[in-house]
Protein backbone atom coordinates (compact mmCIF):
# COMPACT_ATOMS: atom_id res chain seq x y z
CA UNK A 1 0.00 0.00 0.00
CA UNK A 2 2.75 2.44 0.90
CA UNK A 3 4.34 1.89 -2.52
CA UNK A 4 1.16 3.17 -4.19
CA UNK A 5 1.19 6.33 -2.09
CA UNK A 6 4.89 6.73 -2.86
CA UNK A 7 4.16 6.63 -6.61
CA UNK A 8 1.65 9.46 -6.17
CA UNK A 9 4.03 11.60 -4.13
CA UNK A 10 6.87 11.12 -6.60
CA UNK A 11 4.59 11.80 -9.59
CA UNK A 12 3.50 15.11 -8.06
CA UNK A 13 7.08 16.35 -7.88
CA UNK A 14 8.00 14.81 -11.24
CA UNK A 15 5.23 16.51 -13.20
CA UNK A 16 6.02 19.79 -11.48
CA UNK A 17 9.74 19.78 -12.34
CA UNK A 18 10.16 17.95 -15.66
CA UNK A 19 9.33 21.07 -17.65
CA UNK A 20 11.72 23.40 -15.78
CA UNK A 21 14.97 22.56 -17.59
CA UNK A 22 13.34 22.21 -21.04
CA UNK A 23 11.34 25.42 -21.36
CA UNK A 24 13.39 26.51 -24.38
CA UNK A 25 12.70 23.16 -26.06
CA UNK A 26 8.96 23.59 -25.40
CA UNK A 27 9.18 27.11 -26.80
CA UNK A 28 10.58 25.83 -30.10
CA UNK A 29 8.30 22.78 -30.25
CA UNK A 30 5.13 24.84 -29.90
CA UNK A 31 6.47 27.80 -31.93
CA UNK A 32 5.94 30.39 -29.23
CA UNK A 33 8.01 32.87 -27.24
CA UNK A 34 9.75 32.09 -23.95
CA UNK A 35 7.39 34.33 -21.97
CA UNK A 36 4.39 32.30 -23.14
CA UNK A 37 6.24 29.02 -22.64
CA UNK A 38 6.91 29.98 -19.00
CA UNK A 39 3.15 29.76 -18.40
CA UNK A 40 3.65 25.98 -18.52
CA UNK A 41 5.11 26.41 -15.02
CA UNK A 42 2.71 29.13 -13.87
CA UNK A 43 -0.53 27.36 -14.78
CA UNK A 44 0.54 24.18 -12.98
CA UNK A 45 1.62 26.11 -9.88
CA UNK A 46 -1.64 28.07 -9.68
CA UNK A 47 -3.79 25.00 -10.30
CA UNK A 48 -1.90 22.87 -7.76
CA UNK A 49 -2.04 25.62 -5.14
CA UNK A 50 -5.81 25.91 -5.51
CA UNK A 51 -6.44 22.15 -5.70
CA UNK A 52 -4.25 21.03 -2.79
CA UNK A 53 -6.29 22.35 0.16
CA UNK A 54 -9.62 21.78 -1.62
CA UNK A 55 -8.97 18.13 -2.41
CA UNK A 56 -7.44 17.55 1.01
CA UNK A 57 -10.56 18.92 2.66
CA UNK A 58 -12.88 16.93 0.37
CA UNK A 59 -10.98 13.79 1.35
CA UNK A 60 -11.73 14.53 5.00
CA UNK A 61 -15.44 14.77 4.21
CA UNK A 62 -16.06 12.21 1.43
CA UNK A 63 -13.39 9.54 1.93
CA UNK A 64 -9.72 9.68 1.02
CA UNK A 65 -9.48 6.58 -1.19
CA UNK A 66 -12.26 7.85 -3.45
CA UNK A 67 -10.63 11.25 -3.78
CA UNK A 68 -7.16 9.69 -4.30
CA UNK A 69 -8.39 7.61 -7.24
CA UNK A 70 -10.12 10.64 -8.78
CA UNK A 71 -6.97 12.76 -8.36
CA UNK A 72 -4.71 10.13 -9.94
CA UNK A 73 -7.12 9.80 -12.89
CA UNK A 74 -7.21 13.58 -13.34
CA UNK A 75 -3.41 13.69 -13.36
CA UNK A 76 -3.30 10.87 -15.91
CA UNK A 77 -5.94 12.55 -18.10
CA UNK A 78 -4.17 15.90 -17.89
CA UNK A 79 -0.90 14.24 -18.88
CA UNK A 80 -2.54 12.57 -21.90
CA UNK A 81 -4.08 15.89 -22.97
CA UNK A 82 -0.67 17.56 -22.65
CA UNK A 83 1.00 14.84 -24.72
CA UNK A 84 -1.61 15.24 -27.48
CA UNK A 85 -1.76 19.06 -27.37
CA UNK A 86 -1.13 20.51 -30.86
CA UNK A 87 -0.48 24.04 -29.60
CA UNK A 88 0.61 25.94 -26.49
CA UNK A 89 -2.95 26.99 -25.59
CA UNK A 90 -4.17 23.41 -25.21
CA UNK A 91 -0.97 22.48 -23.39
CA UNK A 92 -1.64 25.19 -20.82
CA UNK A 93 -5.20 23.91 -20.36
CA UNK A 94 -3.82 20.42 -19.82
CA UNK A 95 -1.38 21.73 -17.23
CA UNK A 96 -4.32 23.13 -15.27
CA UNK A 97 -5.79 19.61 -15.14
CA UNK A 98 -2.41 18.16 -14.15
CA UNK A 99 -2.29 20.63 -11.27
CA UNK A 100 -4.97 18.64 -9.47
CA UNK A 101 -2.08 16.34 -8.54
CA UNK A 102 -1.51 18.76 -5.66
CA UNK A 103 -4.23 16.91 -3.77
CA UNK A 104 -2.20 13.71 -3.68
CA UNK A 105 -0.13 14.75 -0.67
CA UNK A 106 -2.81 15.69 1.88
CA UNK A 107 -4.80 12.60 0.83
CA UNK A 108 -1.75 10.37 1.27
CA UNK A 109 -0.94 11.82 4.69
CA UNK A 110 -4.52 11.23 5.78
CA UNK A 111 -4.52 7.62 4.52
CA UNK A 112 -1.28 6.93 6.38
CA UNK A 113 -2.75 8.30 9.58
CA UNK A 114 -5.96 6.28 9.10
CA UNK A 115 -4.35 2.93 8.31
CA UNK A 116 -0.83 2.76 9.76
CA UNK A 117 0.00 1.80 13.36
CA UNK A 118 0.66 4.90 15.44
CA UNK A 119 4.36 4.09 15.87
CA UNK A 120 4.86 4.00 12.07
CA UNK A 121 2.97 7.17 11.11
CA UNK A 122 5.85 9.59 11.63
CA UNK A 123 8.29 7.57 9.54
CA UNK A 124 5.77 7.03 6.71
CA UNK A 125 4.85 10.72 6.60
CA UNK A 126 8.54 11.70 6.60
CA UNK A 127 9.35 9.42 3.68
CA UNK A 128 6.29 10.49 1.66
CA UNK A 129 7.14 14.15 2.17
CA UNK A 130 10.72 13.66 1.02
CA UNK A 131 9.49 11.85 -2.11
CA UNK A 132 8.05 15.12 -3.43
CA UNK A 133 11.59 16.47 -3.52
CA UNK A 134 12.81 13.19 -5.05
CA UNK A 135 10.26 13.61 -7.81
CA UNK A 136 11.27 17.21 -8.43
CA UNK A 137 14.96 16.32 -8.58
CA UNK A 138 14.21 13.35 -10.84
CA UNK A 139 12.14 15.60 -13.10
CA UNK A 140 15.05 17.99 -13.44
CA UNK A 141 17.33 15.05 -14.31
CA UNK A 142 14.96 13.33 -16.75
CA UNK A 143 13.48 16.27 -18.65
CA UNK A 144 16.38 16.69 -21.08
CA UNK A 145 17.06 12.98 -21.81
CA UNK A 146 13.34 12.25 -22.33
CA UNK A 147 13.03 15.00 -24.95
CA UNK A 148 16.32 14.06 -26.62
CA UNK A 149 15.51 10.32 -26.83
CA UNK A 150 11.71 10.17 -27.10
CA UNK A 151 10.43 13.64 -27.96
CA UNK A 152 8.32 16.28 -26.21
CA UNK A 153 5.04 14.27 -25.95
CA UNK A 154 6.76 11.62 -23.80
CA UNK A 155 7.50 14.32 -21.25
CA UNK A 156 3.82 13.88 -20.41
CA UNK A 157 3.05 10.32 -21.54
CA UNK A 158 5.43 8.79 -18.99
CA UNK A 159 3.87 10.26 -15.80
CA UNK A 160 0.42 9.81 -17.33
CA UNK A 161 0.90 6.07 -17.84
CA UNK A 162 2.46 5.59 -14.40
CA UNK A 163 -0.39 7.36 -12.59
CA UNK A 164 -3.06 5.50 -14.62
CA UNK A 165 -1.56 2.19 -13.46
CA UNK A 166 -1.30 3.55 -9.90
CA UNK A 167 -5.01 4.48 -9.94
CA UNK A 168 -5.97 0.94 -10.99
CA UNK A 169 -3.79 -0.56 -8.26
CA UNK A 170 -5.25 1.81 -5.64
CA UNK A 171 -8.76 0.66 -6.56
CA UNK A 172 -7.68 -2.97 -6.22
CA UNK A 173 -5.37 -2.94 -3.21
CA UNK A 174 -5.87 0.15 -1.04
CA UNK A 175 -8.25 -0.43 1.88
CA UNK A 176 -11.46 1.53 1.71
CA UNK A 177 -11.19 4.89 3.44
CA UNK A 178 -14.33 6.14 5.09
CA UNK A 179 -15.13 9.78 5.64
CA UNK A 180 -13.68 10.99 8.92
CA UNK A 181 -16.84 12.70 10.07
CA UNK A 182 -15.73 16.16 9.04
CA UNK A 183 -18.76 18.25 8.08
CA UNK A 184 -19.26 18.91 4.38
CA UNK A 185 -18.47 22.54 3.60
CA UNK A 186 -20.36 25.05 1.51
CA UNK A 187 -19.32 26.43 -1.87
CA UNK A 188 -18.59 30.10 -1.11
CA UNK A 189 -15.49 29.75 1.15
CA UNK A 190 -13.48 27.49 -1.22
CA UNK A 191 -14.49 29.66 -4.18
CA UNK A 192 -13.25 32.82 -2.47
CA UNK A 193 -10.04 31.07 -1.41
CA UNK A 194 -9.44 29.83 -4.95
CA UNK A 195 -9.97 33.29 -6.47
CA UNK A 196 -7.66 34.86 -3.85
CA UNK A 197 -4.92 32.34 -4.65
CA UNK A 198 -5.27 32.81 -8.40
CA UNK A 199 -5.00 36.60 -8.06
CA UNK A 200 -2.04 36.37 -5.69
CA UNK A 201 -0.05 33.81 -7.69
CA UNK A 202 -0.70 35.45 -11.05
CA UNK A 203 0.41 38.78 -9.61
CA UNK A 204 3.56 37.38 -8.04
CA UNK A 205 4.64 35.15 -10.94
CA UNK A 206 4.09 37.84 -13.58
CA UNK A 207 5.62 40.72 -11.57
CA UNK A 208 9.20 40.17 -12.84
CA UNK A 209 7.92 40.37 -16.42
CA UNK A 210 5.60 43.38 -16.10
CA UNK A 211 7.10 45.18 -13.08
CA UNK A 212 5.99 45.10 -9.47
CA UNK A 213 4.44 48.58 -9.72
CA UNK A 214 2.53 48.04 -12.97
CA UNK A 215 -1.25 48.67 -12.66
CA UNK A 216 -2.09 45.08 -13.60
CA UNK A 217 0.16 43.57 -10.94
CA UNK A 218 -0.94 46.00 -8.24
CA UNK A 219 -4.56 45.30 -9.18
CA UNK A 220 -4.07 41.54 -8.87
CA UNK A 221 -2.31 41.86 -5.51
CA UNK A 222 -4.99 44.22 -4.20
CA UNK A 223 -7.70 41.83 -5.39
CA UNK A 224 -6.00 38.97 -3.57
CA UNK A 225 -6.05 40.97 -0.31
CA UNK A 226 -9.76 41.79 -0.68
CA UNK A 227 -10.66 38.22 -1.64
CA UNK A 228 -8.61 36.79 1.24
CA UNK A 229 -10.43 39.04 3.69
CA UNK A 230 -13.74 37.91 2.21
CA UNK A 231 -12.68 34.26 2.46
CA UNK A 232 -11.68 34.55 6.14
CA UNK A 233 -14.94 36.30 6.96
CA UNK A 234 -16.95 33.62 5.14
CA UNK A 235 -15.11 30.86 7.03
CA UNK A 236 -15.74 32.52 10.38
CA UNK A 237 -19.46 32.82 9.64
CA UNK A 238 -19.91 29.38 8.06
CA UNK A 239 -21.68 26.67 10.05
CA UNK A 240 -19.36 24.08 8.44
CA UNK A 241 -16.17 25.97 7.51
CA UNK A 242 -14.06 24.77 4.62
CA UNK A 243 -10.86 25.59 6.50
CA UNK A 244 -11.26 25.92 10.26
CA UNK A 245 -9.78 29.31 11.21
CA UNK A 246 -9.44 28.14 14.81
CA UNK A 247 -7.15 25.38 13.54
CA UNK A 248 -5.13 27.88 11.48
CA UNK A 249 -4.63 30.03 14.61
CA UNK A 250 -3.12 27.18 16.62
CA UNK A 251 0.53 27.85 17.32
CA UNK A 252 1.92 24.61 15.86
CA UNK A 253 -0.05 25.15 12.63
CA UNK A 254 0.71 28.82 11.95
CA UNK A 255 4.36 28.29 12.88
CA UNK A 256 4.59 25.25 10.56
CA UNK A 257 2.93 27.26 7.78
CA UNK A 258 5.46 30.06 8.25
CA UNK A 259 8.28 27.50 7.98
CA UNK A 260 6.70 26.11 4.79
CA UNK A 261 6.50 29.61 3.31
CA UNK A 262 10.21 30.41 3.68
CA UNK A 263 11.49 26.91 2.90
CA UNK A 264 9.27 26.76 -0.17
CA UNK A 265 10.67 30.06 -1.36
CA UNK A 266 14.21 28.74 -1.17
CA UNK A 267 13.50 25.31 -2.62
CA UNK A 268 11.44 26.26 -5.68
CA UNK A 269 13.71 29.12 -6.69
CA UNK A 270 16.87 27.02 -6.44
CA UNK A 271 15.26 24.34 -8.61
CA UNK A 272 14.06 26.88 -11.15
CA UNK A 273 17.34 28.76 -11.65
CA UNK A 274 20.16 26.28 -10.99
CA UNK A 275 19.78 24.64 -14.45
CA UNK A 276 20.06 28.08 -16.07
CA UNK A 277 23.34 28.73 -14.26
CA UNK A 278 24.69 25.32 -15.24
CA UNK A 279 23.75 25.87 -18.90
CA UNK A 280 25.32 29.36 -19.09
CA UNK A 281 28.22 29.62 -21.55
CA UNK A 282 31.44 30.12 -19.52
CA UNK A 283 32.73 32.43 -22.24
CA UNK A 284 30.81 35.13 -20.39
CA UNK A 285 32.97 34.66 -17.31
CA UNK A 286 30.79 32.22 -15.34
CA UNK A 287 28.64 29.15 -15.82
CA UNK A 288 29.44 25.57 -16.75
CA UNK A 289 28.32 25.44 -20.39
CA UNK A 290 26.27 22.29 -19.76
CA UNK A 291 23.63 20.95 -22.11
CA UNK A 292 20.10 20.34 -20.82
CA UNK A 293 20.91 16.67 -20.34
CA UNK A 294 24.25 17.39 -18.64
CA UNK A 295 22.69 19.89 -16.25
CA UNK A 296 20.10 17.25 -15.37
CA UNK A 297 22.83 14.73 -14.59
CA UNK A 298 24.50 17.30 -12.32
CA UNK A 299 21.33 17.25 -10.24
CA UNK A 300 21.34 13.44 -10.01
CA UNK A 301 23.31 13.34 -6.69
CA UNK A 302 20.70 15.67 -5.23
CA UNK A 303 17.96 13.23 -6.24
CA UNK A 304 19.92 10.42 -4.57
CA UNK A 305 20.25 12.23 -1.23
CA UNK A 306 16.57 13.15 -1.39
CA UNK A 307 15.88 9.45 -1.67
CA UNK A 308 17.08 8.72 1.85
CA UNK A 309 16.40 12.11 3.46
CA UNK A 310 12.94 10.98 4.60
CA UNK A 311 14.41 7.86 6.20
CA UNK A 312 17.14 9.95 7.84
CA UNK A 313 14.59 12.47 9.10
CA UNK A 314 12.48 9.70 10.67
CA UNK A 315 15.52 8.44 12.60
CA UNK A 316 16.44 11.95 13.73
CA UNK A 317 12.86 12.68 14.83
CA UNK A 318 12.96 9.69 17.20
CA UNK A 319 16.28 10.77 18.70
CA UNK A 320 16.09 14.58 18.78
CA UNK A 321 12.48 15.45 17.86
CA UNK A 322 10.92 17.12 14.84
CA UNK A 323 11.84 20.68 15.87
CA UNK A 324 15.55 19.94 16.11
CA UNK A 325 15.36 17.94 12.85
CA UNK A 326 13.71 20.91 11.15
CA UNK A 327 16.45 23.24 12.38
CA UNK A 328 19.17 20.84 11.23
CA UNK A 329 17.57 20.60 7.79
CA UNK A 330 17.32 24.37 7.51
CA UNK A 331 20.98 24.78 8.47
CA UNK A 332 22.09 22.22 5.89
CA UNK A 333 19.96 23.92 3.22
CA UNK A 334 21.53 27.29 4.00
CA UNK A 335 25.06 25.82 4.17
CA UNK A 336 24.77 24.23 0.74
CA UNK A 337 23.34 27.39 -0.78
CA UNK A 338 26.04 29.63 0.71
CA UNK A 339 28.67 27.12 -0.47
CA UNK A 340 27.41 27.63 -4.02
CA UNK A 341 27.69 31.40 -3.59
CA UNK A 342 31.33 31.07 -2.52
CA UNK A 343 32.45 28.28 -4.87
CA UNK A 344 30.74 27.62 -8.21
CA UNK A 345 33.46 27.56 -10.90
CA UNK A 346 33.91 23.76 -11.06
CA UNK A 347 31.34 21.06 -11.71
CA UNK A 348 32.08 19.21 -8.45
CA UNK A 349 31.61 22.40 -6.41
CA UNK A 350 28.16 22.99 -7.87
CA UNK A 351 27.14 19.33 -7.60
CA UNK A 352 28.21 18.98 -3.96
CA UNK A 353 26.73 22.31 -2.87
CA UNK A 354 23.32 21.46 -4.32
CA UNK A 355 23.47 17.94 -2.87
CA UNK A 356 24.10 19.35 0.63
CA UNK A 357 21.27 21.85 0.22
CA UNK A 358 19.03 19.10 -1.13
CA UNK A 359 19.69 16.85 1.83
CA UNK A 360 18.72 19.69 4.14
CA UNK A 361 15.56 20.48 2.19
CA UNK A 362 14.48 16.83 2.20
CA UNK A 363 15.07 16.44 5.93
CA UNK A 364 13.32 19.71 6.75
CA UNK A 365 10.17 19.03 4.74
CA UNK A 366 9.94 15.49 6.06
CA UNK A 367 10.02 16.78 9.64
CA UNK A 368 7.59 19.58 8.80
CA UNK A 369 4.98 17.13 7.54
CA UNK A 370 5.22 15.19 10.81
CA UNK A 371 4.65 18.39 12.81
CA UNK A 372 1.49 19.24 10.87
CA UNK A 373 -0.03 15.74 11.01
CA UNK A 374 0.75 15.36 14.74
CA UNK A 375 -0.78 18.74 15.60
CA UNK A 376 -4.36 18.18 14.39
CA UNK A 377 -7.07 15.56 14.99
CA UNK A 378 -7.56 12.91 12.26
CA UNK A 379 -10.58 14.65 10.70
CA UNK A 380 -8.46 17.75 10.00
CA UNK A 381 -5.39 15.99 8.58
CA UNK A 382 -6.28 16.63 4.94
CA UNK A 383 -7.20 20.28 5.44
CA UNK A 384 -4.16 21.08 7.59
CA UNK A 385 -1.59 19.31 5.41
CA UNK A 386 -3.26 20.66 2.27
CA UNK A 387 -2.98 24.24 3.50
CA UNK A 388 0.65 23.67 4.53
CA UNK A 389 1.51 22.35 1.06
CA UNK A 390 -0.39 25.23 -0.50
CA UNK A 391 1.51 27.81 1.55
CA UNK A 392 4.76 26.14 0.49
CA UNK A 393 3.69 26.68 -3.14
CA UNK A 394 2.92 30.33 -2.41
CA UNK A 395 6.37 30.71 -0.87
CA UNK A 396 7.82 29.07 -3.96
CA UNK A 397 6.08 31.60 -6.17
CA UNK A 398 7.46 34.49 -4.11
CA UNK A 399 10.98 33.01 -4.04
CA UNK A 400 10.99 32.40 -7.79
CA UNK A 401 9.62 35.86 -8.54
CA UNK A 402 12.15 37.49 -6.22
CA UNK A 403 15.02 35.63 -7.89
CA UNK A 404 13.74 36.50 -11.36
CA UNK A 405 13.44 40.15 -10.35
CA UNK A 406 17.05 40.22 -9.09
CA UNK A 407 18.32 38.58 -12.27
CA UNK A 408 16.33 41.02 -14.39
CA UNK A 409 17.56 44.06 -12.44
CA UNK A 410 21.21 42.97 -12.74
CA UNK A 411 21.06 41.76 -16.35
CA UNK A 412 23.21 43.17 -19.13
CA UNK A 413 21.73 45.43 -21.79
CA UNK A 414 21.27 42.44 -24.11
CA UNK A 415 19.22 40.64 -21.45
CA UNK A 416 21.86 38.11 -20.37
CA UNK A 417 22.03 37.33 -16.65
CA UNK A 418 25.20 38.23 -14.75
CA UNK A 419 27.23 36.29 -12.22
CA UNK A 420 26.49 38.96 -9.63
CA UNK A 421 22.78 38.48 -10.21
CA UNK A 422 23.00 34.76 -9.52
CA UNK A 423 25.18 35.22 -6.44
CA UNK A 424 22.88 37.86 -4.94
CA UNK A 425 19.85 35.66 -5.67
CA UNK A 426 21.28 32.53 -4.08
CA UNK A 427 22.55 34.48 -1.09
CA UNK A 428 18.98 35.68 -0.53
CA UNK A 429 17.75 32.09 -0.85
CA UNK A 430 20.28 31.02 1.80
CA UNK A 431 18.90 33.71 4.10
CA UNK A 432 15.38 32.38 3.49
CA UNK A 433 16.48 28.94 4.66
CA UNK A 434 17.92 30.49 7.82
CA UNK A 435 14.66 32.36 8.48
CA UNK A 436 13.01 28.98 8.91
CA UNK A 437 14.93 28.55 12.19
CA UNK A 438 13.16 31.23 14.29
CA UNK A 439 9.85 30.14 12.77
CA UNK A 440 10.61 26.55 13.84
CA UNK A 441 11.39 27.69 17.38
CA UNK A 442 7.83 29.02 17.57
CA UNK A 443 6.53 25.45 17.25
CA UNK A 444 5.77 24.34 20.82
CA UNK A 445 7.18 21.20 22.37
CA UNK A 446 4.53 18.52 22.62
CA UNK A 447 4.79 15.66 25.03
CA UNK A 448 2.72 12.60 25.75
CA UNK A 449 0.98 10.87 22.88
CA UNK A 450 2.08 13.37 20.29
CA UNK A 451 5.71 12.76 21.04
CA UNK A 452 5.48 9.54 19.09
CA UNK A 453 4.74 11.69 16.11
CA UNK A 454 8.05 13.37 16.52
CA UNK A 455 6.99 16.83 17.73
CA UNK A 456 9.36 17.67 20.54
From TrEMBL:
Membrane topology value: Multi-pass membrane protein
Protein's recorded name: MFS transporter
Subcellular location: Cell membrane
GO terms, molecular function: transmembrane transporter activity
TM helices/strands, residue ranges: 36-55, 67-86, 92-112, 124-142, 154-174, 186-206, 212-232, 253-274, 286-312, 324-344, 350-373, 394-412, 424-443
Residues in Major facilitator superfamily (MFS) profile domain copies: 1-448
InterPro entries given in the database record: MFS, MFS_dom, MFS_trans_sf, Tet-R_TetA/multi-R_MdtG-like
Keywords from the named record: Membrane, Transmembrane, Transmembrane helix, Transport
This protein's record includes keyword Secreted: no
Pfam families: MFS_1 (PF07690)
Protein source organism: Nocardioides albidus
